[in-house]
Amino acid sequence: MLVAESTLLEALYKYFGYEQFKGDQEAIIRNVLERRNTFVIMPTGGGKSMCYQLPALMSEGTAIVISPLIALMKNQVDAIRGFNTDDGVAHFLNSSLTKAEIQTVRKDIKAGKTKLLYVAPESLTKEENVKFLQEVNISFFAIDEAHCISEWGHDFRPEYRRLRPIIDEIGKVPIIALTATATEKVQGDIQKNLGMMDAALFKASFNRANLYYEIRPKQNVLKEMIKFVKQHSGKSGVIYCLSRKKVEEVAETLTVNGIRALPYHAGLDASTRASHQDKFLMEEVDVIVATIAFGMGIDKPDVRFVIHHDIPKSLEGYYQETGRAGRDGREGRCVTFYSYKDIEKLEKFMKGKPVAEQEIGKQLLLETVGYAETSVCRRRVLLNYFGERYDQDNCGNCDNCLHPKPQIEAQDELELLIEAILAVKEKHQAEHIVNVLLGKTDQQVKTYKHDKLELFGDGGDQSERFWTTLIRQAVLSGLLHKDIDNYGLLKVSESGHEYLKTPTSFKIALDTSFDNTESDDDDEFSGGGSGGGGAADEQLFEMLKNLRKNVAKNMNVPPFVVFQDPSLEEMATNYPISVDELKNIAGVGSGKAVKYGKPFIDLIKKYVEDNDIERPMDLVVKSVVNKSGLKVYIIQNIDRKISLDAMAKAKGLKLTEMITELETIVASGTKIDIGYYINEVIDEDRQDEVFEYFQTAETDSVADALKELGEDDYTEEDIRLMRIKFMSEMGN
């Protein structure tokens, strides 16, 4: 149907209260209303939903919207109902509905009330639903998140590939397919699979000028994240992690540090996920920590930052997830923590998958590595990946443009690189080309006899990193082309052939190497402390030791019972000035912080003020209490007076390892009573002798105790067990 411009604007205002369309929205909507197949590639925040919602409301019948996530459907249905007086205008049909609710949905559709029906692809394949929809007047099908169709997309779903035959079975109606991310390869895949090569294509620019992109080395990640979130206090943000376990850990750590955060992942039940999502949308929490399951289509315009704890598996995934920041066109900061070790982990996950899938996954990962390690404008790299040229040298809104690296001349090397690609007949990937240039004879080089090439080894005076950098930057400059259809084979473009005829200056900045950054911070917060942030303040350390001596004397206990030296060293490094901060020091815990802490806090506070000391930011990071199953198991079984040998056996530990666990528990300030076990293995007189020794000892050294008490009379386990009893009774 032909629709006048004024009619479209009137409908936009009537249904949604807007006076103007954004970008290509008007042309897309007109195309859908004229019942033509339509393919929309529009970045997150560009207003994709409007492209099918408005024509659905204006058309006869019901539009079927295929969507991959239940949470997303609920979110969109709620939004549409918010603009209408009748809730029947929009429904979803998925596994979360009861039989009675399904009947209500069908009744509203048959009565002609429902303009939009959101369906999961799995629900669409059910025979009963196909039969029902065959009797319904359908205006068109909208396939949201259409990249799920392609194996080259970042979120491939096999059930999406079965959509076309099912749509044909239901009835011949037009299709609108929409996605926020699609390379040319993915775009072709979608159109081919949906049988819509004739579709009108609308492709908006992928440039989100308001987003700031930054890659940081993966070191002290939790501390860095907390520092960042606190610097953006009160603002909404999303933190993405690859595993559910990491999501839970990060959310819990943020919470104990006074940040309003909740987890979101597929392991939570549907009602919890919906509740956490709603709290984020309603601003009852500031931060959602999530796996990639969160955010598809979540329409929260004021997300101010997106942090990636782990680098995503593909640049499409990265682009879509970062795209959830700043959808209102205002500030959006995208910070990713990256270590090459994470790439190695992702490669391991791919093993066991079909070879073709592994090859695709490897290519996608290589693009991600290139982006993370590049020293050129990140915006330029991203847009190039999506087939869009960005000719500005400096975007002014990414870490590389704001802090450019020095450049070096690479004209001669670029000529050699192009010659090498032509010499191997443009039939190999970057890794192979680099091996030829460096003179490395791996199996592939030998097989193709490329070690016999005249230029074999001619690039040996440069490093592997240099050649990898040069290849990436030559691709960005359009001199080389990466053939994604053929797993990333390097080809020389027309411009590259021209360059070889008349070479000119070509400068590159060396990419950053992230090989040595820590990829995991599991150990950082496992115990009672945050770990020292630098060298201890010697003067303060001596003052704390003197104070400890006086406190110990007044309480009639040895100094090491109050605090051990490593705890004092950490205090002299991090300057804790509250009980909460003191609890976070290794070997302190809440019991000792309350019992002995006040004079130490007072001394440190005065020292900080007198010497005008700037305390390290990471001190405020409180660790999550170690709730490991083993610790809980030990404490519960000690309460039940179970033998330590029996506990060790049950957990597959040696007795010495069990004693080490007990020492850790006591050092963190938890009081335990293992007297029942000690009474079985050490007689009373010998217990008294060891107890008396520790009351006057200068250190808690086991070796010193054995020397003093006699190695013939006591074992190391005896002394360690008695030391646990002594520390627990006297110190905790």
Write the layout of secondary structure elements.
Layout: H1 5-16, H2 25-33, E1 38-41, H3 48-58, E2 62-66, H4 70-82, E3 90-93, H5 99-110, E4 116-119, H6 121-124, H7 127-134, E5 138-143, H8 163-170, E6 175-179, H9 184-193, E7 200-203, E8 211-217, H10 221-231, E9 236-240, H11 244-256, E10 261-264, H12 270-281, E11 287-290, E12 303-308, H13 315-322, E13 332-338, H14 340-350, H15 355-373, H16 378-385, H17 399-402, E14 407-409, H18 411-423, H19 430-438, H20 443-447, H21 464-476, E15 480-483, E16 489-492, H22 494-501, E17 507-509, H23 538-555, H24 559-562, H25 565-574, H26 579-583, H27 589-610, H28 629-639, H29 644-650, H30 655-667, H31 675-681, H32 684-696, H33 702-709, H34 716-731
Parallel strand pairs: 1-6, 1-7, 2-4, 2-5, 3-4, 5-6, 8-13, 9-11, 9-12, 10-11, 12-13
Antiparallel strand pairs: 14-17, 15-16
Helix pairs in contact: 2-3, 14-15, 19-21, 23-25, 23-27, 29-30, 30-34, 32-34, 33-34
What does this 3D model show about the protein?
The chain is of the alpha/beta class and 732 residues long. The chain folds into five domains: 5-203, P-loop containing nucleotide triphosphate hydrolases (Rossmann fold, 3-Layer(aba) Sandwich); 211-389, P-loop containing nucleotide triphosphate hydrolases (Rossmann fold), CATH 3.40.50; 411-505, Winged helix-like DNA-binding domain superfamily/Winged helix DNA-binding domain (Arc Repressor Mutant, subunit A), CATH 1.10.10; 538-620, DNA polymerase, domain 1 (Orthogonal Bundle), CATH 1.10.150; 629-731, Arc Repressor Mutant, subunit A (Orthogonal Bundle). Helices cover 48% and strands 11% of the residues. It contains 34 helices and 17 strands. A seven-stranded parallel sheet has the order 3-4-2-5-6-1-7, with helices on both faces. Strands 8-13-12-9-11-10 form a six-stranded parallel sheet, sandwiched between helices. A two-stranded antiparallel sheet has the order 14-17. Helix 32 crosses helix 34 and helix 33 (702-709) crosses helix 34 (716-731). The longest helix is centred in the C-terminal third of the chain and has 22 residues, at 589-610. The protein is globular, with a radius of gyration of 32 Å.
